[in-house]
Amino acid sequence: MSRIRILGPRGQLQSVLGCVQDLGLVQLVEPSETESLSLLGLTPEQARHVRGVRKVVKDVDTALELLGQTPSPPKTAKDLDLRRAALVAGRCRRELEGLAEQHQQLEEERALILKFRPFFAAFRKIGESGLDLDGIRVFYLILKKDGEEELRRMRAAFRQALGDGFELLSQPSESGESAMLLAVPAADAMKAEQLLSEAGVQALSLPDQFEEESVGSTIQRMQARLGELPGELATLERQRRRIAEDRGRELAGIQATVRDYLATIEATEKAVVTPRAFVVEGWIPSAARPDLERQLGKSFGDQVEIEAVSSEEWAGDTVPVVLHNPRLFRPFEAITGMMPLPKYGTVDPTPFVAVFFPMFFGIVLGDIGYGTMLGIISLILRIRSKPGAKLRSISEIGLACSLFTIIFGFLYGELFGDLGHRIGLHPLIFNREEAFFPFLGFAIALGVVHIVLGLLVGAVKMFRGDKRRAIGKGMAAMMVVLIALALMAASGMLPERFFTPLVIATLVALPILIVAEGVLAPIELVSTLGNVLSYARIMAVGTASVMMAIVANRMVGAFGAVWVGVLFALVFHLINFVLGVFSPTIHMLRLHYVEFFGKFYSPGGSQYRPFRHWSARESATDERSA
Amino acid sequence: MDLEMVFLYLSAALAVGIPALATGWAQSRIGPAAAAALAEKPELTVTVVLLIAIPETLAILGFVVAVLILMQGGG
Description:
The complex is a heterodimer of chains A (about 625) and B (about 80).
Chain A: E1 2-9, H1 13-23, E2 27-29, E3 38-39, H2 44-67, H3 82-116, H4 119-129, E4 136-143, H5 148-162, E5 167-172, E6 178-185, H6 189-199, E7 203-204, H7 215-269, E8 272-273, E9 277-284, H8 289-300, E10 305-308, E11 320-321, H9 333-336, H10 350-365, H11 368-384, H12 390-412, H13 419-422, H14 436-462, H15 467-490, H16 499-517, H17 521-533, H18 536-554, H19 562-596, E12 606-607, H20 616-625
Parallel strand pairs in A: 11-12
Antiparallel strand pairs in A: 1-9, 1-10, 2-9, 3-8, 4-6, 4-7, 5-6, 8-9
Helix pairs in contact in A: 1-8, 2-3, 2-7, 3-7, 5-6, 10-12, 10-18, 10-19, 11-12, 14-15, 14-17, 14-18, 15-16, 15-17, 18-19
Chain B: H1 3-40, H2 45-53, H3 56-72
């Protein structure tokens, strides 16, 4: 990333900014050196104008959000007619907000009536009992599940206070709660409220429009409203769709144009000026600087000058970060991108993720059949996704994972579990059904390689700055290797005569580690060894996956009729495939984020946001990553 | 089956069972808190996945110990 300064005649400022926006390569910032220069502020009239533009942006954003979908803007951008844009955006926002409010009211009314639904049966009973409800106050109550004892106590309390002058009807509802209706003479209403409060039972309040009605007509009105509400909601939805059809594209066009315009105003505010010249500063990827120079040179000749700002004038933390990887690794930026961006000047772990993530995934799933299924699904997703979309990245990661799964499927001799062995496939490295120890050793060895690599990357990167800590990291990496080799010698995997020299070397390295990293270094080393052991999950999850596949295959002969067994086996294989894809993904993510990244990753970089023409998709991506 | 084998299988079962219960308990505490946090801040998804995955190490290591017990004991 380079920091550049663009200088030119003041009269050309807007044209230069337009050109920079067209290119979309420079993230503008306020100039670091402003002596004898002044920020190009706004006059009160301009400030009022900007407030107006911001209001249009807010209106159009709200309107499009309420539409629920962002239609694509017209292909040819129109010149901005701010007055019309404000009128259309404001009117659409008001109409859509009105519709949304009505929709919410109707939904609330429906929810409230549905709460009363359990009472409908009770109401009918009252009607059938021929109760005279004149001068009667009715309470609607909900009694919680298993509340018979509470109901008995309440009935006794009411009998004691009111004698026979009340009616308490209860009706169990589908949720297990009981809907209750309490009718008391209006004169005793206060007393009843007090008794209910003492019993801790809350009365439901009726929707406003039913409050003045008699009990009999309330149920009829409620039932009628329940029938009417879906129609009214559908009418509102039709109105919303009509606005979307009539105005959707226009609103999207206004959004793009007005946001572009606002971006230009905000860019102008970052410029500093003298009476004759302007200066703007910004960040640009170093590789893209010649493009900018060529374009500005073509448009403005030698009137506009670009110069590099010396690194002494800016601090490292302020540099925006953009991940830039070869095409093959780029999909894996989706995995790195789930973490905060790395600080500028530190290591982008994407290439490591691109190698190890699909490889570990393949080692865990390791099955030709499942790998092929994953490959087909990933291929379909890739064909159906748009270039640059997140789904495209996921599908490409899936393809890489499926490739490794098939490769390790051949190495393990697995095709839908042990079906491969039955048709003549033989394991080339080990049989996962039986070789627990070799698989465990393999997983731990991968852990050693991965963790040591992480420590070495951290040490190399740190070497320029803090040499002592870099040596500490290198020493930790060496000790992990020494301890692993010593354990191998102890368990007979290496000649026993290596054991003593390896232990001595470990003991010699320990004081150097303490000197380099401090007294807490041994604890950190134990934690690092714990990280290595965590890679045992590769074996654990992998073994679980193959065992499930074997169980699925054994179902064929376990159910009398062969076709029933085959059906069960297929379903079980499908479940195992879903688990087999989901589980390694989560575990491998964890191994990368916690164990591997923890050794060198420095989060805290700020996203590179160049000044360019606005687009809805990029804006959504930026907001997510912000 | 002699008593030694009974204890062997029992040890292996305990070695994987107890850490699995502990993992389940830890995740039962993390899960609701994580769901609540996600409702407020969806951008915490990665942190939440990591927090939920961290206790799984217990079960994994328990499983490894169980395998070691069974293999060393000839089960």
